[in-house]
Amino acid sequence: MTDARQLWERARTQHFSDAGLGFALDISRMDIDDAFFAAHAEDAQRALAAMAALERGAVANPDEQRMVGHYWLRAPHLAPSLTERRAIEDTLAAILRFAADVHGGRLRTERGERFGNVLVVGIGGSALGPQFVADALGSATDRLRPFFFDNTDPDGIDRVLDQLEPTGGLARTLTVVISKSGGTKETRNGMLEAQAAYRAAGLAPERHLVAITQEGSELDRVAVAQRWLARFPMWDWVGGRTSELSAVGLLPAALQGLDVAGMLAGAAAMDELTRTTNVRQNPGLLLALAWRKATGGRGAKDMVVLPYKDRLALVSKYLQQLVMESLGKEKDLDGNVVHQGLAVYGNKGSTDQHAYVQQLRDGVANFFVTFIQVLKERRASSLQVEPGVTAGDYLFGFLLGTRRALYDGGRPSVTLTFDDVTPAAVGALIALFERAVGFYATFVNVNAYHQPGVEAGKKAAQAVIALQAKVIAALPHDGDGATVDALAAQAGAPAEVETVWRICEHLTANGRARRVPGTTPFTARYLA
Amino acid sequence: MTDARQLWERARTQHFSDAGLGFALDISRMDIDDAFFAAHAEDAQRALAAMAALERGAVANPDEQRMVGHYWLRAPHLAPSLTERRAIEDTLAAILRFAADVHGGRLRTERGERFGNVLVVGIGGSALGPQFVADALGSATDRLRPFFFDNTDPDGIDRVLDQLEPTGGLARTLTVVISKSGGTKETRNGMLEAQAAYRAAGLAPERHLVAITQEGSELDRVAVAQRWLARFPMWDWVGGRTSELSAVGLLPAALQGLDVAGMLAGAAAMDELTRTTNVRQNPGLLLALAWRKATGGRGAKDMVVLPYKDRLALVSKYLQQLVMESLGKEKDLDGNVVHQGLAVYGNKGSTDQHAYVQQLRDGVANFFVTFIQVLKERRASSLQVEPGVTAGDYLFGFLLGTRRALYDGGRPSVTLTFDDVTPAAVGALIALFERAVGFYATFVNVNAYHQPGVEAGKKAAQAVIALQAKVIAALPHDGDGATVDALAAQAGAPAEVETVWRICEHLTANGRARRVPGTTPFTARYLA
């Protein structure tokens, strides 16, 4: 614990700000000293060099032998060849043209009305960015209202369809199906559910559908064959979790009526700032160094994200993916088993003050906080809730109060400050964390741009679905029913009795099998 | 790692289910053996005894010298005296009567219309439960549509007011202000903002307002003086984070048209199950023991909550408060400094598979997972996305696949299964975690029912607001402006220069001060 005077000294020397962008980063509550900067000076230069190579088009994702080009999206002139540059520029132009056609009523619904809703079908990198931006920048004056199918939950899909009803239902809805690979099963299922719902409403799905995917993918072929309204490209050099400023994020945002040029400009400005070789003037390096200080470079602490602004509440989910999927790796680039990562969670202040800040203040010291402050309170002027005091003064007071109470209890924090939640600020926020993740990955020597661990769960899921088909085929149609042991044997998976039992219970609950109860849940018998 | 056959053995012996409640708990993937049960048998009986005493009316919150009575809410006959019993029963009757009056059109808006929206103004324990339940059980057929002011963010308040517009705005909105103490500043601010918005719309606020608070509180006095529509009581023996089945949760749910009797019955049934003295037949003890196994009783691992059901996505936020605010304590009951806790985060499956499951599978092994499965897919029958396969089969397959992939990688998990998301299931889920938290608190010897650490942040926030008033008074009205050092000195807080600087920036951004730029952000001068 350091006294207020000393902290003020540190605040002035460990404070980065950029007036043009309306942004500041304060790492003064991370207890970083000059010796730490000195000890990590070489690493910082190494990270800058690796990033510069990445930006020049090096194969920065060695596992998949890919370039990593999300920084070119907001500075196409930096792309390594004219091919990428033109792809980026042409796609942006096509997005703006398409959105203008929709807003201007040149592209209308099957029934000749204007589109009023945009339904995004996507998951992970194809949903979290669009959801974050839609919520951060959306307002009652949105040109199209945004909705999402972001899972393969049938009930969840039904809920979204219900929510569309008050604003004209599917008849007034443009649906954007997003899958970089074009083969993501959850998204494929969402697309099929949406198509069935259009048909059930007496509508022709292809008159409402747009695809964003890599050329030649399964989704691309479907969109071509069915003559969808439009297709926009993704490229193998843009990863899902860094795709918000590609068509994935820009098309939904443009349709919603948001200022995508502003978002790109904000990201480009932050990219410029985070290329600075002077460590103390590079907010991306400062942030990555703060993470290293907090976690020992081993993920020893969680990052709790607390934006004091309701419209930024989804930033923690967005960063959860960006940070954890990038850094959470089994092996380092040399093949050593390292089990790296940095867990991220959070919601919003001061709401969370009344939820889990009790533990943050008093409990397990297994975290550091990232506060996000927004200076501008609201569009109109504020009511006084006490003489001379606004609701926003309380929001501000709770941020500073919590920051201080945590620091006094030995809990460090970083504070980001934005003048306002503008398109440029949102672009800058995204770019800042993309860069910090890249730098930190160099510090801990991991590939930030692949996700090999996701495959294990997908394969295991496909195995369950394949086994389910065999169980369905093995279910007797009459008689006493079969035990799970018998079904497992007949399905050719005698060791997989637990999975077979769970499959039988799942089928029974949905009217696709019948259960003859046994003396325990595990001795039930099942019939088709 | 254990093979599938051995896991099946364990699944059958470490599986609790209750057909009546449509609920099952599986701890077989926590690697708990008989020796662990034996080693904790005494603790388990101690936890049962402490809980029995609590339910009989012992002072279970010694710090605040209070009884802890949330279990009586769903079994009023268990209350220690007729006073509590009658208070619970009368309140429930009053809630149902009030909701029936609103639904039946006997209680109408100022303009004689039926109410269409319910706006809940509350934070923490007065918002997280109502939000979770509203989302879990809500549908397009809700009697009133639920909205929330759950923060003191002016822009967030404006957004909610905008969202009310399509369904009639404030003119058709009943506002329920919830604050147990009646003095929570965020809620007071939300109430004042709501009242101002009613007035701005030409409406009399008191014709739309209802209070839930302790008798005689600041909020209660306001509601009496202003002749609000109704008041419902809270009691000092119900804590905020366990208040969902008091008026706090039941009134909003009843107004929304949800089956509150079903919720209470589900909670009562789970309470019965978790009173069982046979540890292996007590799901509350099984869960608390699983937490102990995972965390070593020291909060060494985070709990990641993954409900595979969109409508349960808020359960992680609800549990974040319930678990972290209850268990995250500096001192144990004997006054030893222990820094206890159990960090909770999560969102929903299989969405999170495409976000941070990469890290869960491959990265830092600092967590265990709580899977929540729901057997019933949807109301209607499902489309086939492949021959014989539904979107729900994929949801199910991803749950089992992720569970297996994590376990194969040495990451343990608990699985809760519900037949369907019914009011009883939601009540049971709440009751299960309330009980597990209580048991675990006995294991680690902390008071689960106070939150002393929240005060530090509140006091620090009030100090910021008080200092702001002094800074405003000290701002010169003309001339070159004052430096932050001068303002801090004049405000009588010469050491608090950083806070004064942040106050000046906050005021400037909101048009309440003017800034004369300096050569650095810290050498600016400020004017009124």
Tell me what you see in this structure.
Two copies of one chain form a homodimer. In chain A, helix 10 runs parallel beside helix 15 (423-444). In chain A, helix 8 (218-225) links the parallel strand 6 and strand 7. The longest helix of chain A has 22 residues, at 82-103. Chain A is 45% helix and 13% strand. The N and C termini of chain A lie far apart (68 Å). The first copy, chain A, folds into three domains: 4-61 and 264-450, Glucose-6-phosphate isomerase like protein, domain 1 (Rossmann fold, 3-Layer(aba) Sandwich); 70-258, Glucose-6-phosphate isomerase like protein, domain 1 (Rossmann fold), CATH 3.40.50; 453-527, Arc Repressor Mutant, subunit A, CATH 1.10.10. Chain A is α/β, with parallel strands linked by helices. The first copy, chain A, has a six-stranded mixed beta sheet with strand order 1-2-11-10-8-9, sandwiched between helices. In chain A, strands 4-3-5-6-7 form a five-stranded parallel beta sheet, sandwiched between helices. In chain A, strands 12-14-13 form a three-stranded antiparallel beta sheet. Chain A has helices at residues 4-13, 34-39, 41-56, 82-103, 128-137, 154-164, 185-200, 218-225, 247-256, 260-273, 283-295, 315-327, 357-362, 391-408, 423-444, 453-474, 484-490, 497-509; strands spanning 15-18, 23-29, 117-121, 145-149, 173-178, 209-214, 230-234, 302-307, 344-346, 367-374, 413-418, 482-483, 514-516, 525-527. Chain A is built from 18 helices and 14 strands. The interface between A and B is large, with 150 and 152 residues.
